[in-house]
Amino acid sequence: MERMPSGPNSPNAELQRLDEDVHRPPALCAAIVARLTFGSNIIETETDSYRLAQTRAQQGTVS
Question: Who has greater pLDDT, 23 or 52?
Answer without folding.
Answer: 52
